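Hi Y.,

Following your request, here is the sequence exactly as I used it, all 589 residues.
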Amino acid sequence: MKMSSRKSRLAAAIMVAGALTVTTACSSGHSNESAKTGASKAPVTATTISVGTAEDSKGPAIAEPGAKKGGTVNMIDRDDFSHLDPAMVYMNYNAEVSLLFTRQLTGYKTAADGSQKLVGDLATDTGSTTDGGKTWKFTLKDGVKWQDGTPITSADIKYSIERTYASFVKGGPTYIQSWISGDKYREAYAGPYDGKGLDAITTPDDKTVVIAFQDAHPDANFTLAMTGYGVVSKAHDTKEEYDKKPFSSGPYQITEHVNDRSLDLERNPNWDGATDPIRNAYPDKWHMTFGVQAQQSTERFMADNGDDKNAFSFHNQVHTTYIDKVKADEKLKSRTLEGLTPYVDYYYINNTRIKDQKVREALVKAFPHQQTRQLQGGTSYGDYATSYMSPTVLGYESYDPFDVLKKPQGDTEAAKKLLTDANALNTTIVYAYNNTPVQQKVTEAIRTNLEAAGFKFVPHPLDSKTYYDAIQQVNNEFDLYWGGWGADWPTGYTSLQPVWDGRAIADGGQNYAHVNDPEINAAMDAAVKIADPVAQGKAWAAIDKKLQDKAYSIPDVYQRSLSLYGSGLGGVKFDTLAGLQSPLNIYVK
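Below is the corresponding structure, written out as tokens. Let me know if you'd prefer a different format.
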């Protein structure tokens, strides 16, 4: 593999900097209904990540000891997947299920010791660049096919990227689009449906695709591992309808999808494991059921009866009520997973509506971190966040300008003084929240503090399945709302740029707080050009501090996870890339 010196240094620096947890699915699904109590935290087994070779990119995937093929795996979860069209996938649980039927140019291979390598998925390796990352070349493997047996070609890769420009595609990543066509990429190109293509993506032959960016992006091969750039079949593209039933390039294909009720998968006979270094496909079928709340799923996993013995859950964690009992039960330990997720929880302040910095500072000061954390599981739910970046990110520095660690319960008196000085007492705060039992209690804790600080509080419940769709609207009518975020790979760039770059504000975008600060934008532009990864990390840490100083939003906790699965399954592992249970090695015993 040809690799620029900057990419080599970055990969090396990631390894040297320590054990870093990474994520490829930026938005978290807020499974707080099933969060944890104040039990002590288990040691975190962190991972390192490196860039693999062409040899590493060959299939089959690393076998799971003792695994066998056959049977049906059940999955029980609170919500249906909000998106299955790769171009619109940015949620962690959407990305996790997509591993079963969507492939990308690159992906992550996990070794037995938990270390991870970026490898070629559809591609023979992780790509090559001879100009520092401005132009990337990928070669497709022999034998990669769609579910109907037709070959996956370079034209499919080109088309899949082009359709991310389409107006109906909302909520997915925008890195590649903006790198090719600029921040206003949809004004530059409307997608492939009028027969026009992107000149920046060329296909010299059926196996070769070349992508040219406006500037150097030495991490583009990491970007292309995101589900958002998964391959889509032009011949079977149903536009908006594709989101319900994508055409498979992976080991399984969708046989039936009943919205909000169930999703059924069976083997894709044209997937060849010899081409795939990432996915083991042990079960014959997957049956996924939705509408199961975390308390129900916890009770069912603990009882371990019938079909539930062969069940797991992407999203549902152990319900608060049962955390201590689960942790104390020796019989459950063998099928309990706990780990640090890569997400930072925030309470985003809508800066379109709350323009006065003093009002935002009052919100930060008054926020009841201690109370809301306890309702969602105490210390096992997460550690208080003192940065907009996770501790797993290169360049992370703890910073606490509003003394959250000194008064995690909130300082309502200081907040009220800020409002009084700003002549802003009785400012109305419309708070949008996931309408689940735990979040209803969290909302009341927030109400108590904000009203004590002098705010007028108006709660606004939202459906959990479409929660992100609602808060991602630029003209939403909310002032404060929760959101989780994790880096797409462990640098400050993917931690901060997608969320805080003011030039990326759009419906379906990731700048939930609608921050458009020219100083921050310029600092981001400068930081991304710094070649040395350690120096670049310091630049992102400085940006993080500026964001906190201006009280643009409220960092809350660094998330943790605790989950159960049935005794009839083997190979169930915690995916540190997404902070969820992984399907890749699961088998029926």
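The radius of gyration is 23 Å.

Thanks again,
Q.
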